[in-house]
């Protein structure tokens, strides 16, 4: 993708991005926005249109539409602790949020909690996309069943909008290794809304996906809950918690980009501000570790999404879950535009996911 005007040329791609909205600096194409996670959504003729869920099977390499999904009203997945001790998430939050943002800095999980071998930390996994045995991207997923996890739909395909050869799952991944003892865990099937990746409005928030795994790892690791009514009743200023696998620090990338625009005072000042904030929000950052943050909801659209004010996002955080203090899913990380993060919880899609999970023998 290319954004340009007569004053400067900036090349960027969905996987190599700096989290800076340069549209403010007189770019001609007013609809182009630079984000950390480029998510292009499907077009809908109306808000009430019924979702169509697509299934892709990595074993057969067959893509098909699911019909006759039957959601039973008030269906709920309750949190399951698994084999690890439970932590009280309310003890690890504070109102001391800085820079007028409503999220905390990224904090290394083991520095705050001592270990990843605690619930619900144990439910969070690193996802790696492989094509021709080459790593082409990473995301974060969270278990919501013994063998299902939830993540972002834009984590599924390659930059060429193709399915990768495989996606592998790394539980308890920290300090550049997984301490979970098992054979390689793969994604067998993925489920997502048909309209995704077809140029829809952001507010449709179809950037949610369900992964079926090759092993029932939730029996040991545990999983978080999914309750539609709880999501619909989320309150502004409610504290939520997030664990993720960001894969690169943007401090160094901001500095590199800053050096390219020394003569453009407006861009340079913007980058200086971002560098200062990035250094605060990612202390001692390493892409090989799991990170924790908490935040307060600033805005929400019932049945579709919720937002936070956040300075920037980092590739790899995509698909990670914002959960509440009772260990229930509330939304998944999708994208960042300006200082507003978009986190999807489109209820119609989540109902379909509940139907898939609860109607399959465990």
Characteristics:
Thrombin, subunit H, eight-stranded antiparallel sheet, 6 helices, alpha+beta, 362 residues, 2 domains, single chain, 15% helix, six-stranded antiparallel β-barrel, globular, disordered N terminus
Q: Could you walk me through the main structural features you see in this protein, from its secondary elements to its overall organization?
A:
Helix content is 15%, strand content 30%. It is α+β, with helices and mostly antiparallel strands and 362 residues long. A hairpin with a 5-residue loop joins strand 22 and strand 23 (329-337). The protein is globular, with a radius of gyration of 20 Å.
Please summarize the sheet with the most strands.
8 strands, antiparallel
Number of helices: 6
Low-confidence stretches: 1-49
**CATH uppermost class of the largest domain:** Mainly Beta
Q: What average pLDDT do the residues reach?
A: 79
Q: What class do helices, strands and sheet pairing give?
A: alpha+beta
Strand content: 25-35%
CATH topology of the largest domain: Thrombin, subunit H
Gross CATH architecture of the largest domain: Beta Barrel
Helix content: 10-25%
Offer a quick outline of the entry.
This protein is an alpha+beta fold.
Produce the secondary structure layout:
Elements: E1 2-4, E2 9-11, E3 41-42, E4 53-57, E5 62-66, E6 76-77, E7 107-108, H1 109-113, E8 124-131, E9 134-143, E10 148-151, E11 166-171, E12 173-174, E13 177-178, E14 185-193, E15 199-200, E16 209-213, H2 218-221, E17 226-227, H3 228-232, E18 239-244, H4 250-260, H5 265-281, E19 291-296, E20 299-301, E21 305-309, E22 321-323, E23 329-337, E24 340-344, H6 347-358
Antiparallel strand pairs: 1-2, 3-15, 4-5, 4-14, 6-17, 7-19, 8-9, 8-11, 9-10, 10-16, 11-14, 12-13, 14-16, 18-19, 18-22, 20-21, 21-24, 22-23, 23-24
């Amino acid at each position: 993708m290319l954004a340009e005007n007569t004053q400067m040329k900036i090349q960027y791609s969905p996987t190599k991005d700096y989290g800076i909205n340069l549209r403010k600096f007189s770019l001609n194409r007013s609809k182009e926005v630079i984000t950390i996670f480029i998510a292009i959504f499907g077009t809908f003729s109306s808000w009430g249109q019924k979702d169509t869920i697509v299934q892709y099977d990595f074993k057969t390499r067959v893509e098909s539409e699911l019909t006759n999904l039957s959601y039973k009203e008030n269906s709920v997945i309750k949190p399951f602790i698994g084999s690890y001790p439970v932590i009280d998430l309310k003890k690890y939050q504070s109102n001391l949020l800085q820079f007028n943002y409503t999220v905390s800095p990224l904090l290394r999980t083991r520095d705050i909690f001592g270990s990843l071998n605690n619930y619900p930390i144990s439910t969070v996994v690193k996802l790696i996309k492989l094509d021709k045995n080459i790593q082409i991207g990473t995301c974060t997923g969270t278990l919501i069943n013994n063998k299902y996890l939830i993540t972002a739909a834009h984590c599924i395909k390659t930059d060429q909008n193709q399915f990768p050869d495989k996606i592998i799952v790394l539980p308890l991944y920290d300090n550049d290794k997984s301490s979970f003892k098992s054979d390689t865990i793969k994604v067998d099937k993925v489920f997502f809304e048909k309209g995704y990746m077809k140029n829809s409005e952001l507010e449709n928030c179809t950037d949610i996906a369900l992964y079926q795994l090759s092993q029932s790892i939730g029996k040991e690791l545990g999983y978080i809950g999914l309750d539609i009514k709880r999501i619909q009743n989320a309150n502004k200023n409610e504290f939520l918690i997030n664990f993720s696998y960001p894969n690169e620090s943007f401090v160094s990338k901001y500095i590199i980009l800053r050096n390219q625009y020394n003569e453009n005072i407006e861009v340079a000042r913007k980058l200086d501000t971002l560098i200062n904030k990035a250094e605060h929000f990612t202390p001692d950052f390493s892409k090989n570790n799991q990170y924790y943050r908490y935040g307060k909801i600033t805005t929400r659209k019932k049945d579709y999404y919720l937002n936070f004010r956040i300075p920037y996002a980092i590739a790899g955080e995509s698909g990670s879950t914002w959960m509440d203090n009772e260990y229930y899913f509330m939304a998944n990380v999708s994208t960042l535009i300006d200082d507003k993060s978009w986190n999807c919880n489109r209820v119609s899609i989540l109902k379909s996911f509940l139907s898939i999970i609860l109607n399959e023998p465990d």
